[in-house]
Amino acid sequence: MDIIGIIGYYDLVSMTLITRQAGAPNDSVPPLPVLAKWSSPFPTPCTGNFFWPGPSKQRRQAREKLEAFAAAPAPASGDTTMGEDNKPSGPDLTQGVSPADFADGKLLGHIGQDQVLLVQQGAEILAIDAFCSHYHGPLAEGLLVGDTIRCPWHHACFSLRSGEATRPPALSALAVWQVEREGDRLFVRSKCEPAKQPLKEAPRQAQSAAAQQAGSVPRKIVIVGGGAAGFAAADMLRREGFGGTISMISDAAAPPVDRPNLSKDYLAGHAPEDWVPLRPDDFYAEAGIDLRLTTQVGSIDAKERKVVLGDGSALPFDRLLLATGAEPIRLTIPGADQPHVHTLRTLADSRAIIAVAKGGPKRAIVIGASFIGLEAAAALRARDIEVHVVAPEERPMARILGPEIGDFVRALHEEHGVIFHLQDTVTAFEGKRAQLKSGGTIESDLVVVGIGVRPRLALAEQAGLAIDRGVTVDAYLETSIPGVFAAGDIARWPDPHSRANIRVEHWVVAERQGQLAARNMLGQRERYDAVPFFWSQHYDVPINYVGHAEAWDEIKIDGSVADRDCLVQYRQKGRVLAVASIYRDLDSLKAELAMERDVQPV
């Protein structure tokens, strides 16, 4: 695992150098990761995450080296010298390798500057790009499941045969490569031809008139919501070849963005602006998606099958997806409406906090010890701002992750200078002064409120959909009204793993539900049975979580939380409901697979 972390660093440095040698201006080359290819249909820079596998010391060193490299002047014109450290890793696959060179069914090599992963599938050898198209995770450390490979960082999944991204958070395919046998040697020299044309060049296939008249194939689909679920659904509809109209209604001012980054690297000042959009602006027009920003929906007329917009106009639909997401809970205490008090949910929220942070505030208060709150605290510490966290709980995150990880997270933040005021609350703001329930006060120039979110259910309630602390959906994500689906933060679905009806507010869940809802709106009737997954990042420590445990009667720890090397099981009556991990990426993937197969550990 340590070696691959360094491999990833060398690979990215090489790519950065190539980008500069191709004539890119120095300030256009992002620090980490460098420009990575999104496969067809639409190329765009990949979103960035600056954390690496392996021990925290190596992860920090890799980051420091690469940021220093990216900040250095570009090489002089004609200077194509590359140092030894910048060479791609593994054997040159154009020179051939032996099947005996494989370890655990994998072999990492290169073709020129392209890193390629070879995978054994019985007697067959397949080859695919070596890094995930999401945050550039090293697939050589991933898990092989059938003819797919899963990314160790955020559990994206790719087909080894087509390169297709079959599970979010990755949305773009990887290139697959042609493997040739010559005697007892294996050679890779070229990429395979894509199985499909890029979407923007593919003809819009019209559905048959008979199918349209029979109502079995929708012609007009409306998506209400511009977040993870709404975007994933629109994207998947076109990937599935849907040729009808797609209208996507969003009250946000910006196209769909990589929301997890808003409280992490983007807020910390490490991720540039152009890494935040999920797709470039021209994606929507090229894909034939009618994206309407800053647009309010007034009501839904389920009987007449139309969405009425705030201006009184109406959009008819054959299928409707509600993906309205959640909104942050706001403080209702005196002084909470002051301009230096911010919530953090949207791109506009993150930009507003960044604008204050750039002004050089000496101190910030984060209200709430949630995932968003503490990720924001870490981001503000990266800007050398003194941070105080005020929260009513005894331990951060203990309700979700238990006391051991809660204590660890607190200690980790304290190591980085965060000051906690736990079992306390802010009762009022008097100018820049926060009054605490305990009687103390804190002066600050910036306040970030992270006290949770609530699902946006008003439209669903008005439309007459069944509601149970969320929009009730069946296993196919269809609501109580046929043809109307719901996905993401608002959906409460029957989860086969926890054996309960659950609603979760995870980014990856929203994306996966959006994709499945899209396929089911086209009549595919697939059950939603994906295991919930989320990740959180605190400085150089990643925490992955699979499953869903609202309560447990036993926590079993393998390894050491304090040493940042652990797998933590949350059990109810002996059954594992969820697993958290720190630097146990492969074990996390295996735990997810076991839950999918309903296999309990011995």
Task: Explain what the structure shows.
By secondary structure, the protein is α/β, with parallel strands linked by helices. The protein is 24% helix and 27% strand. The protein has 13 helices and 35 strands. The strands form nine sheets. Strands 1-2-3-8-9 form a five-stranded antiparallel beta sheet, with no helix packed on it. A five-stranded parallel beta sheet has the order 12-11-10-16-28. β34 and β35 form a beta hairpin. The longest helix is centred in the first third of the chain and has 20 residues, at 2-21. It is globular. Residues 1-84 and 197-214 have low confidence and may be disordered.
Largest sheet: 5 strands, antiparallel
Mean pLDDT: 86
Radius of gyration: 24 Å
Q: Count of DSSP E strands?
A: 35
Q: Determine the number of helices (DSSP H or I, runs of at least 4 residues).
A: 13
Q: What would you call the structural class? A: alpha/beta
* Strand percent estimate: 25-35%
* Distance N to C terminus: 26 Å
The 3D shape can be described as globular
**Adjacency order of strands in the biggest sheet:** 1-2-3-8-9
Q: What quaternary form is this? A: single chain
Indicate the percent of residues in helices: 10-25%
